[in-house]
């Protein structure tokens, strides 16, 4: 799974470079482009944070065979004598001729028994896989962070568009009311009330422009402040429901999440690692053997040249590694408990995310099924009636406010539904992708 993310990054590198080369006041950027940019600028940091490289290095260390030990000793350095007239076979027995000092060459090799090295290798492999699962889980979580920032910017942009439309609308109405006031068609108090609403709309426009700037800055922070980030403009696009079918049976979705969630996979791998560590601790009572072999040239012996071989074994008489075994058992129990807790949390995540998405989807459908068109119809009817003097200025203003509130709530509902869908994907452990 890890290499797929880097493949996505490489595929989108050229696209993002072209994006930054465009010098314009506003740069329209899609959600996939934002996610790809996030991967390019953050994957290395995330990998370092979750110690993926360190875990791989530790796996190499765990599989290493102990190095042999070679030693050399020279002895019987007694001034100028140096074994003159030595009687060893192979020496010149002349008392005036030195046979040289004694020399010892020794070779030691530790031989691990009871499969300890194999258990260490298996344990380190589980640790490496757990680190990679942690990394994928971090990517899963942080991808939704960047999505939320993206849709926060999109929501601010939609509010800005709405307030701009309302300001322009009030300008047109105020201009028409000026003519009506001069002809005595409306009272001055009605004219002033509409003018006050127009000023409130301009204040809302100022606030909306500030909200867009803040949302751009928040997105830039998440992306580690790339060039031109304060001119990013979120493209209006909504998630396509293809990675998961929210209409599936709830139990089927839970089973899917339990198979795919990287955090659960990491916990299971750590439990497997703890189990191997327990096996390793239990086998510590089987002592390792150190084999010793060597060559000696010793004029003080009967034979000048000789070889020797032997072995040594530590005897677990007084201490049989019970502490290490008990500690490993506790660690295994803790990891198994963490795995169970994660599984329960995943079940709750899926149920909550599914319920939230279904609720958000129903709210959006209510707007599309008539509430949007009804608000626009009421607005137009109130304007027509007010222009003909058939309704009061208060009814006219209330219709304008109702339209604004409905559109405001609709944009919020669309954003909530998009975030709810991606939260559902996240709860199911769907691997994030960028096109």
Describe the structure.
This protein has 435 residues and is an alpha+beta fold. The chain has a single domain, classed as Outer membrane efflux proteins (OEP). The chain has nine helices and six strands, in the order αβααββααβααββαα. The strands form two sheets. The protein has a four-stranded antiparallel beta sheet, with no helix packed on it. A two-stranded parallel ribbon has the order 1-4. A hairpin with a 7-residue loop joins β5 and β6. α2 (31-49) packs antiparallel against α4, α4 (116-182) packs antiparallel against α9 and α8 packs antiparallel against α9. The protein is elongated and about 145 Å long. The two termini are 16 Å apart. The model is unreliable at 5-24 (pLDDT under 50).
| CATH architecture assignment name | Up-down Bundle
The assembly state of the depicted protein chains is single chain
Name of the top-level CATH class = Mainly Alpha
Structural class: alpha+beta
Strand order of the largest sheet: 2-3-5-6
State which percent range the strand residues make up. 5-15%
Give the ordered list of helices and strands.
Answer: HEHHEEHHEHHEEHH
């Amino acid at each position: 799974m890890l290499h797929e993310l880097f493949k996505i990054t490489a595929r989108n590198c050229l696209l993002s470079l072209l994006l930054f080369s465009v010098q314009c006041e506003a740069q329209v950027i899609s959600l996939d482009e934002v996610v790809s940019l996030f991967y390019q600028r953050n994957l290395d940091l995330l990998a370092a944070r979750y110690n993926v490289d360190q875990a791989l290095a530790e796996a190499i260390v765990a599989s290493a065979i102990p190095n042999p030990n070679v030693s050399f000793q020279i002895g019987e350095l007694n001034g100028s004598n140096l074994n003159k007239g030595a009687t060893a076979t192979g020496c010149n027995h002349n008392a005036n001729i030195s046979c040289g000092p004694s020399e010892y060459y020794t070779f030691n090799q530790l031989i691990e028994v009871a499969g300890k090295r194999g258990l260490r290798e298996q344990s380190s492999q589980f640790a490496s896989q757990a680190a990679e699962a942690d990394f994928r889980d971090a990517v899963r979580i942080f991808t939704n962070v960047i999505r939320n920032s993206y849709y926060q910017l999109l929501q601010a942009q939609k509010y800005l568009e709405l307030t701009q439309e309302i300001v322009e609308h009030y300008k047109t109405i105020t201009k028409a009311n000026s003519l009506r006031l001069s002809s005595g068609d409306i009272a001055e108090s009605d004219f002033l009330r509409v003018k006050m609403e127009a000023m409130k709309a301009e204040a809302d426009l100022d606030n909306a422009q500030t909200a867009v700037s803040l949302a751009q800055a928040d997105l830039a922070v998440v992306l580690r402040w790339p060039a031109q980030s304060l001119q990013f403009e979120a493209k209006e696009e909504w998630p396509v429901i293809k990675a998961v079918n929210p209409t599936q049976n709830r139990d089927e979705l839970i089973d899917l999440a339990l198979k795919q969630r990287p955090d659960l996979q990491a916990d299971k791998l750590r439990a497997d690692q703890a189990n191997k560590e327990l096996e390793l601790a239990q086998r510590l009572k089987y002592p390792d053997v150190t084999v010793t072999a060597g060559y000696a040239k010793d004029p003080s012996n009967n034979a000048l040249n000789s070889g020797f071989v032997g072995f040594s074994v530590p005897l677990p008489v007084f201490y049989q590694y019970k502490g290490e075994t008990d500690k490993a058992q506790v660690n295994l129990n803790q990891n198994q408990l963490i795995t169970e807790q994660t599984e329960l949390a995943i079940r709750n995540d899926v149920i909550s995310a599914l319920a939230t998405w279904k609720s958000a989807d129903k709210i959006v459908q209510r707007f599309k099924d008539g509430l949007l068109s009804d608000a626009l119809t009421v607005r137009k009817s109130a304007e027509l009636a007010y222009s003909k003097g058939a309704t009061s200025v208060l009814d006219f203003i209330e219709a304008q406010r109702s339209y604004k509130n409905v559109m405001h709530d609709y944009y919020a509902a669309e954003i909530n539904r998009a975030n709810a869908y991606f939260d559902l994907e996240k709860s199911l452990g769907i691997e994030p992708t960028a096109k």
